Amino acid sequence: MAINVLYKTTATATGGRDGRAKTADGALDVALALPKELGGSGNGNNPEQLFAAGYASCFLSAMKAVSSAGNHFKLPADTTVSATVGIGPREDKGFGLVVKLDIAIPGVDHDDAEKLVAEAHEVCPYSHATRGNIDVSLNVL
């Protein structure tokens, strides 16, 4: 499947989970550290935090796009998406991720909110990338 790329960026990591990651343009530059729960110092960010922030913001943007297409209600400004990313050993080998998205759309009927969220899950690039690879659960609050 060909994609007409509209934007791309490059990030480079050094030192792995106990190192540094930064984008080529310098807009993002973070110290990385293994979380305490995995035996590290926790004195920095980790890939799961970065993934959670990226997925939450991308999913909310997908919701805005779906909402503005006119088939749904106008998305309230105080809508939030919280992504919880978990990591653990897989049964076969290596490690795997799980994701839970908690979506709050204040003042909107729950059934209407679930319809919008389901459609956003179909168009969100992070949802496309994870589909069939990572267990992603959607929780409309």
Explained architecture:
With 141 residues, this protein is α+β, with helices and mostly antiparallel strands. 32% of the residues lie in helices and 26% in strands. The strands form two sheets. It has a three-stranded antiparallel β-sheet, with no helix packed on it. A three-stranded mixed β-sheet has the order 4-5-6. The protein is globular.
Quickly give the structural class.
alpha+beta
Number of helices: 3
Kindly provide the radius of gyration, computed on alpha-carbon positions and rounded to a whole number of angstroms: 17 Å
Topology order in helix (H) and strand (E) letters: EEEHEEHHE
Strand order of the largest sheet: 1-2-3
Which word captures the global form?
Answer: globular
Specify the helix fraction band.
25-40%
Beta-strand content bin: 25-35%
Mean pLDDT value: 95
Q: List low-pLDDT spans.
A: none
Distance between the termini: 35 Å
What oligomeric state best describes the polypeptide chains here? single chain
**What does the main sheet amount to?**
3 strands, antiparallel
How many runs of DSSP E, i.e. beta strands?
6
